[in-house]
Amino acid sequence: MEEHRLNRAMAGIKKEYEVLKYVAGHPRLPLRCKLLAGFLLAYALSPIDLIPDFIPVLGQLDDLVVIPAGLWILYKMVPPEIMDEARSGVAKPSS
Q1: 76 pLDDT higher than 90
Q2: In the chain, where are the structural domains located?
Q3: 59, 51 Cβ separation under 8 angstroms
Q4: Which UniProt keywords apply (predicted)?
C-alpha cells in the first residue's frame, strides 16, 4: 500500500516537471516568468545556498522553503491559458 502511494506521488512529480518544462518553453510566456524559472533551476542545482547546508536544520530548510515558494509564485504568474495548454499537452499520450 505504501509503495502504491509512493509510485503515485512520483508520477505526480514527473507530471508537474513535464508541465513546467512545457510552460518554460512556451513562446508567449512572459520574460519575468522565464527569469524566475531560470533562477529556481539555478538555485536548485547550485551548491551555493542562502543558508549553508552545514548549519543543522536551517541549512536544509532554506531549500525546502525557497524552491516550493518560488514554484508557487511561478504558477501564479503564468497566464491561465498557457497553464491549461500545458496541462492538456502533458495529459495527451505521446505518439
Answers
A1: yes
A2: 1-27+80-95, 30-77
A3: yes
A4: Membrane, Transmembrane, Transmembrane helix
